[in-house]
Amino acid sequence: MSLVSLELVRALRKQLELRETFLRTGARRVGWKLGLSDRDRLDGAIGVGHLTTATCLSSGESYAAEGARELSADAEITVELASDIELGDDISAIRDAIGGYSIALEICDIAPLENEPYAVIATNDFHRAVAFGETSKSPPTGVRAELSVNGHLRQGGIAPGDREICGRLRAAAGVLAAVDERLLAGDRIITSGVVSTPIQPGDDVTARAESLGSIQLQIT
After folding, report:
1. On the chain, which terminus has fewer CB atoms closer than 10 Å, C or N?
2. pLDDT single digits (tens) 58-69
3. What is the DSSP string of the chain?
């Protein structure tokens, strides 16, 4: 079982209060997002943020960037769970729990915050919006993901393999257990970005990955 610090527990509980606000106004649970950078990690633990329908968009829609300070677009690999992941599950059990994979395009505001990384987790790990592609059964091992802005390729990189993804999910299960949360069947989980690039209002952003298709958002 993962050891989770009291400070991380406090940050996660603060974040989940924000999720409850969305749920009380009609949003529905979607899942979680994971963060691996030093800014996401509090006391060494993997970063975890929540996802609800309040911030989900469809490909081709617009994201209104009003109030944003430092926008970033991330091309990411998402898993969709076919069954629950239990605390302590090994890599094989976690792999069996995954029902499919998809490309995601996430919009983040990565402007510096006072009292990082506590504030990063408490305010939901930079998340502002996300659009998901179609689900595929094929693991993304060796798949190249790309980000284009206004029709021009900005960034490209190789997606993590399914074993690495399962390791991240195992770590996230340990973090969430500390606040009585779980990775449940039906959850969509962003497993951290493959590539990212700065964006601004007026940009047209596309994320694509071999075998997983593409998605596009306009920033207004």
Report:
1. N
2. 999 999 998 899
3. -----HHHHHHHHHHHHHHHHHHHTT--EEEEEEE-STTT-BTTBPEEEEEEGGGEE-TT-EE--TT-SSEEEEEEEEEEESSPBPTT--HHHHHHHEEEEEEEEEEEE----TTTTHHHHHTTTTEEEEEE---BSS--TT-EEEEEETTEEEEEEEPPPHHHHHHHHHHHHHHHHTTT--B-TT-EEEEEEEEEEE--TT-EEEEEETTTEEEEEEE-
